[in-house]
């Protein structure tokens, strides 16, 4: 059975947005789903996420696809790099990278921002990477999204008016994720 790792963002489970439908579709194409649940909101620290992810390191090392949302798209760069884990396919949803402080409400997330060197190492570890984004993301500026795509060597997939793809966006399905997986025979 193939394995998919799902990494949520700072607000928690992907089930609040596109996760339920994604899991249904992954099961249809014979995927086992591994979904770590990390500390959320103001309790988030990079070290807590590393510690929580370490419980799944065996699964990550043999994953066929890693699907991340928002903060998870930054975290996975740092995690794979630190642990020198190779993977075939990463699909990022609402991936962006901060180039300046994002305001005191988000300053505690600064340790999650990958360095240029971490992005370079990440690119050596991942065969294919995609960044699904929208024009009206309320978290990332468009330049932050495109910079993330460039630094992570991601192919961009634009979906109009989908916001940040989280709970407030109302997006319950992103069929493009399953299509990417099928296209790469993963």
Strand content: 15-25%
Main sheet specs: 6 strands, parallel
Class per helix and strand makeup? alpha/beta
How many strand segments?
A: 6
Distance between the termini: 11 Å
Q: Based on CA inertia axes, which overall geometry fits?
A: globular
Widest beta sheet: strand line-up: 2-1-3-4-5-6
Radius of gyration from the alpha-carbon trace, in angstroms:
15 Å
Annotation field: number of helices: 7
Uncertain segments are: none
Instruction: Work out the helicity level.
Output: 25-40%
The helix/strand order is EHEHHEHEHEHEH
Instruction: Report the mean per-residue pLDDT as an integer.
Output: 93
Structural commentary:
The protein is an alpha/beta fold. It starts with a strand and ends with a helix. It is 35% helix and 18% strand. β3, α4 (71-83) and β4 (87-93) form a beta-alpha-beta unit. The mean pLDDT is 93. The longest helix has 13 residues, at 71-83. It has a six-stranded parallel sheet, with helices on both faces. The chain contains seven helices and six strands, in the order βαβααβαβαβαβα.
How is this fold's topology laid out?
Blueprint: E1 2-7, H1 19-28, E2 31-34, H2 46-54, H3 57-61, E3 65-69, H4 71-83, E4 87-93, H5 116-125, E5 126-133, H6 142-151, E6 155-158, H7 175-183
Parallel strand pairs: 1-2, 1-3, 3-4, 4-5, 5-6
Helix pairs in contact: 4-5
Would you summarize the structure shown here?
The chain is α/β, with parallel strands linked by helices and 186 residues long. The chain has seven helices and six strands; from the N terminus they run E-H-E-H-H-E-H-E-H-E-H-E-H.
